[in-house]
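We close this part of the discussion by returning to an individual protein. The encoding preserves chain order, so positions in sequence and tokens coincide. The sequence in question and its structure tokens are set out directly beneath this paragraph:

===
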Amino acid sequence: MSDRHRLGRQHLLIDGKRQAAASGRYFETLNPATEDVLAEVAEADAADADLAVQSSRKAFENVWSQMRAADRGRILMNLADLLRKHQEELVELESLDAGKPISAVQRQDMPAAIDTLTYYAGWADKINGQVVPARPDALTYTVREPVGVVAAIVPWNFPLMIGMWKIAPALACGCTVVLKPAEITPLTALRVGELALEAGLPAGVLNVIPGFGKTVGNALVNHPDVDKVTFTGSPVVGREILRGSAGNLKRVTLELGGKSANVIFGDADLDAATKAASSGIFFNTGQVCSAGSRVLAHESVYDEVVARLAERASKVRIGNPQESGTSMGPIVSVTQMNRVLGYIDVGVKEGASLVTGGKRVGDKGYFVAPTVFANVEHEMRISQEEIFGPVVSVIKFKDDEEALRLANGTVYSLAAGVWSRDIGRVHNFAKKVKAGTVWINTYGPTDVRLPWGGARDSGFGREHGDAAIENFTEPKVVWLNLSN
């Protein structure tokens, strides 16, 4: 595969077949590093959503939920093997479509997708109920049953990895899935759908319908035969999904935004802390829900933290994501690039000090230089609003109480980090900070075995681990009378 050649027309995957959209419309997906067209993709709308949901409903009721759980797990393991076999192709496709450095996809996205699928393949035949001795004259027990048809709406920042976060547990539980990848990055989702069929997944169990949120996304959210929506994206869209799901009271899981604080105390290991803080905001070009976009530094080390972050930012290698030495690629789209540049302008106008970066790099591709702001006040927009780009605000604090107040002082609560050699301090911070994940003397690692999510504008519910099994199953009580 090469970005010098277009990939041709990419069709929807419905009921085991690649097909054009009902409207006959297509949209272009671009390589954000070159602005070249990669492919024309069939544009799904409400009619296609209805076909996909009907297909998934039929597959759920007649095939997938009726299959032995061990057989479902075996098929998912087959798919994991195929992902390994085709990982070079998938890595390159993800890098081209999303502008992600190929080395980063090789190191994180691809292994995480395979690990997630393997993990939940193992769960398939271990989803147990329990006997509850409610009364001596009855046998009372519970079972967990699949929730039904799941609409999985996936973002553009980690298309392959987050897509698998939703697909793998849903299928392991016996649900069927209609997957709507982001229209900016639909290509790996379509290829995974093909590989799933090759692995033995029955037609209709996984349908893939690229398109726009306002059409096909809304159609899925409002569809009366969709039982569950799992969404990763912005709080604005999350609220729209909640409103749309009210029609048939769908179950909803939302993983939304973040404005995560990475707190560096005066006794921290500054080498380790600033290295992690740099990767915590510049990894994936800052397009990460849990990015450490607010670095809170104690006044005793504030100037040094700013200087170290600026030095690291200046050494970030920006360039062609297909080259192994590239550490930061482009922003995913021109729209998102302009949003990031707009926030940088806002920061300057608000009076923050632009230490380094702050500009577009080159005139081809959507590259933005790693940007460090100092002298940021807590109330500034760049401190409060999610930018979703390589922009970090460094904020000064004087003591533990102020650090906690600043860390908790946004509408988000997805993640937080804290750096100190004082074991009591870091545990106290972890206890009181509002965050779904707290990293101590590190920043950013995740694992499918640990629950992931937040509260407030960061959403609700948890992905990963056994929490995801609860997302896609419903408990049922069975009461057998034993008395004569």
